[in-house]
Amino acid sequence: MSKIIKQRSPVGNADVEIPEEIPEIYADGIAGTLVGIPNSRLQFFVTVEIGEKPGDPEKRRVKHSVVIPTVALIEFIQNTQVALSQNALKIEEAYKLTATALSKLLAQDTKTSDQG
Predict the structure, then answer these.
(1) Measured between alpha carbons, how far is 21 from 111 in angstroms, rounded to an integer?
(2) How far apart are CA 102 and CA 108, in angstroms?
(3) What would the 3-class secondary structure string for 2-48 be?
(4) Does residue 58 fall inside a structural domain?
(5) Which residue, of 9, 60, 84, 116, is most buried by count of CB atoms within 10 Å of its CB?
(6) How far is CA 108 from the centre of its chain?
(7) Whole-number mean pLDDT of the chain?
């Protein structure tokens, strides 16, 4: 069943329908942003090869390009900044917990390799 989110803001009101299944894409990062009027373009990349030695460049491939009205992009950026500032402590704690868990996993892997 679809979900409806009621968005109300100074720039306009909208009722957004979110279907149960929507396509999802993954990207490692943003390769480029072209800001224009009336639209802007975001290019998303995936990493296809990691350098063999520290300092070697990664190989990245642009996989997706999104064209969005510039006004919507600005609104997205502003909303993201607000969400990040409101959740900064939770985000920082989550990163610390993730780093701790990863360190423990890596330490276990090292102990397992030493025993083998």
Answers:
(1) 42
(2) 10
(3) CEEEEEEECCEEEEEEECCCCCCCCCCEEEEEECCCCEEEEEEEEEE
(4) yes
(5) 60
(6) 29
(7) 91
Omega within 30 of 0 (cis) for the link into 38: yes
Our count of domains for the chain comes to 1
Q: State phi, psi for 106 to the nearest 5 degrees.
A: -65, -35
User: Residue 96 CA to chain centroid, in angstroms?
Assistant: 18
Tell me, what DSSP letter sits at residue 91?
H
Residue 113 domain-assigned?
A: no
Residue 20, in any domain of the structure:
yes
Compute the distance between CA of residue 66 and CA of residue 90 in angstroms, rounded to an integer: 29
What amino acid occupies position 49?
E
99 located within any domain:
no
Instruction: Express each pLDDT in 14-33 by its tens digit.
Output: 999 999 999 999 999 999 99
Range of the domain at 40: 3-86
Q: What is the pTM of this model?
A: 0.70
